[in-house]
Amino acid sequence: MSGRAFRKAINKEYDLLAERINVEDSNDSEDIDQTPPNSNLFDLLNEADDVENHNSDENVDELEINKQNLEPSLKIASSRKKKKKKNKKNTPVEKPTLELERKTRTGKKVEEMSDVELETLIREINDKFGNLSTAQQGDDNLNEESQSPSSISSNSFLIVDTRLLDADGEMRRMFSSGVVDREIRSRNYARTIKRTLLAKPRQSWPPILKFGLRMELLKENDGIYHFKFIHSQQYQTVQLDFLQRIATHDPNAIISLLHENPYHIDSLLQMSDVYKMSGDHTMASELIERALYAFEKSFHIKFNITKGTSRMDYRHFENRAFFLGLLRHIQSLSRRGCWQTSFEFSKLLLSLDPSNDPLSVLSFIDYLGLKAHQYSYVLSLTNEWTLHKLQDWPNFAYSAAIAQFQLESREENNSQTHKISTAMLEKAILYFPSVILLLSEKCDIQLESHVTESSFIQEVPSSNYLNLLIDHYVDQISPLWTQPELINWLQTVLLNVVVKLQIPDYKASLSNEDFTKALLYGKNLRENSFNEQIPLNLSRYIVVSENSKFLAYLPEVTSRDINLHDPLPPPDGVSPYDAYSESSSTDWENILAVDLRRFLGGVPVGVINANVQMIAERIHQIADTANLQAAAERLIEVLRGAGAYDNDEMQQLPNENQELPMPGGFPQDNSSQAQDRFDTDNDDEHDTQE
To answer: How deeply is 497 buried, as exposed, middle or buried, from its count of CB atoms within 10 A (0-12, 13-18, 19+)?
Structure first.
């Protein structure tokens, strides 16, 4: 039973139980002293609501309304029960309630129970009162029947278990809870009224107010909802400022922008890349989490990440940062070894646009599924996905065989050991034989000489696209193939394939007919299915993954400038910032004025005259990208002239005793520290960690 169906069952049982209590009490007329129960079973069950992690506010309101409607009925029923006889003191409603409360006190807490244990608790109630949720289950079945089969089969692979989006929970399962708890306490998570799913806010983060980002529903079609993020006029002004600052290639300019706009998404992601390149992965991860937290606070009420029915179009510029933030978070989680969490986030990222897959999630979700031990998912996705024919992809052909091998290894009866998986691996080798030599070299697998000398195994695809797919797959999957049982299995299967190619009567797992069909199909697949140019979504993923090894496959991409905040935008993309080109001098002059006002506003009065040259260099640096050298020269002349600031301007500047805030929501320092900071900026070497 899913979490949503479970909550619906609870709501239905609330209504039916209240109705039953009222009917029973209307038939009682005798007086008796009785103490009303202190708590109700369903109040106890309702505590599991936090664990269910539902994303829709409507579900929360619905559950609370049912609870509020039931409580008065229970109170009235308790007062009426005083008229009952003493031999009816323990009513059918109260007795199981008290028994299950004692069981809960002596056993697990409800919030610690799994879905199986919670369903067991529901069945105990149904045994006492009958199946109270039959009507609700009938409604659920009716709703499922109304959906098209293709919609169900496609969306079933996109459903996200929000309980598994918590990386801290996975760390607790992997390591000692004491060690993990100390690490979690060091992060100083903030207490929030409503639990967030994508990221947990920290006490050091600035309060999130209205910062100009919201989401709107574009359309709804057959249960699929299409959304788009919207930038307000305020946010667009900050975004234009960001585009101006990013052109300076100065991290301090982005830090300054983050100080005044701590939840500007592109600035957070850009600084995350800066910290990652400098080796500070902790800070890089925190900035990504802050960006996801800002996104979640902007979600539409109908945007549900659990069902796999929410879509976003990557062509809209405002949506792209959400895609990139999720991908970078997946990379950060994988670096920490949180494979289950990164796997759930990859399903979420794929669900946003499964048809186009703008960040090529399908090139790595099979690997994450194997690392997270989701073998059934990988196998089902390969064979049943309706949007793409994944059996014809090199990564899924081999990963599905591994998944089947692992599932067979779990079976208690291994009388026919790995028969199906061996046939799948034979077919994968016949489809993509060039994987073998790369894999053996990467994993140091010893192969027979007549195997390595086989012309079939030595075949090199002529397609640059196919070579990239194979090289990328071998690079990421190689740690799994180092397991001894997989190495022995691969050596045996490979030997069977090579021998059968030389001796057609040799018996392999595939029948003679299936072997011949697979051989011909694989040849046609390699020659005709990958002749196109490397798709833009795969190129975009390679650029974001920052693996220089694979950039060699993209000479036409690496020869041009790439913005990491928007890598390889789609040619048919739509952006509200397209009109703000560098040729639009009026707009850039406003941005230049804003940047200088903020910069000079942070300089104490006593420091201005001593650092005129530094400020002049800053003006030139900003003006270079906007082709506004003439305006810059005029500003510098005013700055160097007598009485650079009039009285009104002087009043707007901070005095020497005024504290200057540091960027990014960090603790503030005093003016003497600000003086040292500006003196340091005057040196040849700049502190990139400031």
So the answer is: buried
Closest CA to 42 of 26, 75, 78, 18: 18
Gap between the Cα atoms of 487 and 36, Å rounded: 67
pTM over 0.70: no
- Degrees to nearest 5, angle at CA 170 with 479 and 402: 30
C-alpha closest to that of 286 among 231, 332, 227: 332
* Backbone phi, psi, residue 686, to 5°: -105, 140
Contacting residues for 626 by C-beta, under 8 A, at least 6 apart = 244, 582, 585, 588, 589, 591, 592
The DSSP code for 319 is H
Pair 445, 490: CB distance under 8 Å: yes
The contacts of residue 553 (CB under 8 Å, 6+ apart) are: 464, 467, 468, 471, 534, 542
Handedness of CA 387, 390, 395, 398 (dihedral sign): positive
Residues sharing a CB contact under 8 Å with residue 625, sequence separation 6 or more, in sequence order: 244, 247, 248, 582
157 SS3 class:
coil
How far apart CA 84 and CA 27 sit, in angstroms, is 10
Which residue in the block uniquely carries the two structure tokens 């299967």?
493
pLDDT class for 31, splitting at 50, 70, 90? very low
Strands 224-231 and 310-312, bridge-based pairing:
parallel
Distance of CA 553 to the CA centre of its chain: 27
The overall longest dimension of the chain from CA atoms, in Å, is 100
What pLDDT digit, counting tens, does each position of 175-204 carry?
Answer: 767 777 777 777 778 777 678 899 999 988
- The helix or strand, by DSSP H or E, that contains position 198, with its residue range, turns out to be none
CB of 121 closer than 8 Å to CB of 104: no
C-alpha distances (whole Å) from 533 to each of 362, 388, 612 are 18, 18, 53
Of 378, 298, 372, whose CA–CA distance to 333 is shortest? Answer: 372
Residues 6+ apart with CB under 8 A from 519: 430, 501
Query: Residues with Cβ < 8 Å from 13, sequence gap 6 or more?
Result: 42, 122, 125, 132, 133
CA dihedral for 638, 643, 648, 650, sign (positive or negative): positive
CB atoms within 10 A of CB 49: 20
* Per-residue model confidence as pLDDT tens digits over 579-611: 664 434 434 455 555 555 555 555 555 555 556
Q: How far apart are CA 71 and CA 92, in angstroms?
A: 18
Res 265 pLDDT > 70? yes
Strand partners of residue 202:
189
Q: What is the DSSP string of 416-455?
A: TTTHHHHHHHHHHHHH-THHHHHHHHHHT----HHHHT-T
User: In b/e form, how buried is each residue of 530-539, taking b as 16+ CB within 10 angstroms?
Assistant: beeebebbbb
Provide the 10 A C-beta neighbour count for residue 618. Answer: 21
- d(C-alpha 576, C-alpha 578), whole Å: 6
Beta bridge partners of residue 574, listed in sequence order: 316
pLDDT confidence of residue 113: 56
Nearest of 379, 356, 384, 358 to residue 369 by alpha carbon: 379
Q: What was the pLDDT predicted at 680? A: 45
Distances (CA, A) of 644 to 146, 164, 343, 477, 605: 74, 59, 58, 63, 11
**Closest by Cα among 368, 403, 411, 367 to 383:** 403
- Give the span between the Cα atoms of 454 and 447, in whole angstroms: 11
